[in-house]
Design brief:
It catalyses: 7-aminomethyl-7-carbaguanosine(34) in tRNA + S-adenosyl-L-methionine = epoxyqueuosine(34) in tRNA + adenine + L-methionine + 2 H(+). Its EC number is 2.4.99.17. It is an enzyme of class 2 (transferase). By secondary structure, the chain is of the alpha/beta class. The chain folds into 2 domains: 242 residues, QueA-like (3-Layer(aba) Sandwich); 77 residues, Beta Barrel (Thrombin, subunit H), CATH 2.40.10. The strands form 3 sheets. A 9-stranded mixed beta sheet has the order 2-1-17-16-14-3-12-13-15, with helices on one face. Strands 5-6-7-10-9-8 form a 6-stranded antiparallel beta barrel. α7 crosses α8.
Length: 347
């Protein structure tokens, strides 16, 4: 399967660079298992879900992971903290006029907090901070909003680029699980009142989610690694949902990847699992857990678009996207949503 198979034309004006006033006010395109699509509003999920269905949400929290600083020579640098290993050691992306070598000192923020590059790990830099990393991020960091916003992070992003149910103890992502940004507390309470159950998984989203696929044949693409956890409690709730014939609804591609990674690790059936995942889901993949997916509209030729296509079919998804463009749906992280039903003959 070729990368060009997942291309489509997207007018720039349909990229949502700011959120709507209300989280749950977005539109919803429902893509049924038969490939037919229906124009709805996000709150209509109340009518589309049944009592006993299970929503699976990613409870990670986005770090203020972008840091600006200087080299010892005065040149500007930008760090993006990808993964924290202990209080003072992290793997980072570094943007500079030329790559810093091991031993190079960098200075963060107006107070010139020193950090030292100690080596490389694949395409990332190993950086040692002179102060606790989370403290430095809290004081000097910016939220790493997506590059296609074409702007700096603003005060509105501090609230709206986080989910309402994020877990402060799971502060480790560099991008939001954006399908979950549509949920406000009132909608979650209305779903609970209807009898729709909710559980959480954790997948700490890495900056690799924004990287383009650079191989013509998509099967040659290597996914970035991300840490995730599916607890025993969550796995048990999913097993109970499946046993009574209700639907497991993954909110976002990150929740999907966490669930399917756990199932792959447990021989095709959901179970508790913690670890790094590089799972790459594209058409032909046989889903073990997810029946329905709530997701945003994704970039052309992205691994996220491939995952959505795997749940139904590439033709169904591209036809729905063509309709969404014609109807001027809002795209990407702050955009509108889709509800995608798994097709029995997904390909």
């Amino acid at each position: 399967m070729q990368l060009s198979d997942f291309s489509f034309d997207l007018p720039d004006e349909l990229i949502a660079r700011y959120p709507l006033d209300n989280r749950s006010a977005s539109r919803l395109l429902h893509l049924g298992a038969d490939g037919r699509h229906h124009d709805l509003h996000f709150v209509d999920i109340l009518e589309l879900f049944e009592a006993g269905d299970l929503l699976v949400l990613n409870d990670t929290k986005v770090m203020k992971a972008r840091l600006k600083g200087k080299r010892a020579t005065g040149g500007s640098v930008e760090l993006l903290v990808e993964r924290i290993f202990n209080q003072t050691t992290a793997h980072c992306h570094i943007k500079a006029s030329n790559s810093p070598k091991a031993g190079a000192e960098l200075f963060i923020g107006p107070d010139q907090v020193p950090v030292t590059v100690t080596g490389r790990h694949e395409n990332l830099f190993i950086v040692e901070f002179s102060q606790p990393i989370l403290q430095v991020l809290d004081q000097y960091g910016q939220l790493p909003i997506p590059p296609y916003f074409n702007r700096e992070a603003e005060e509105i992003d501090t609230v709206r680029y986080q989910t309402v149910f994020n877990n402060p103890e799971k502060l480790a992502s560099v991008a939001a699980p954006t399908a979950s940004l549509h949920f406000d507390q009132a909608l979650l309470e209305a779903l609970a009142a209807k009898g729709v159950n909710t559980v959480f998984v954790t997948l700490h989203v890495g900056a690799g989610t924004f990287l383009p696929v650079r191989t013509t044949d998509i099967e040659n693409h290597i996914m970035h690694s991300e840490w995730c956890e599916v607890t025993e409690e969550t796995a048990l709730k999913i097993q109970e949902t499946q046993a009574r014939g209700n639907k497991v609804i993954a909110v976002g591609t990150t929740a999907t990847r966490a669930l399917e990674s756990a199932a792959q690790a447990c021989h095709g059936k959901i179970g508790a699992w913690t670890g790094d995942t590089q799972i790459f889901i594209y058409p032909g993949y046989q889903f073990c857990v997810v029946d329905r997916l709530i997701t945003n509209f994704h970039l052309p030729e992205s691994t996220l678009l491939m995952l959505v296509s795997a749940l139904t079919s590439r033709d169904h998804v591209l036809n729905a996207y063509k309709h969404a463009v014609a109807q001027q749906y809002r795209f990407f992280s702050y955009g509108d949503a889709m509800l995608v039903d798994r097709a029995n003959n997904a390909q």
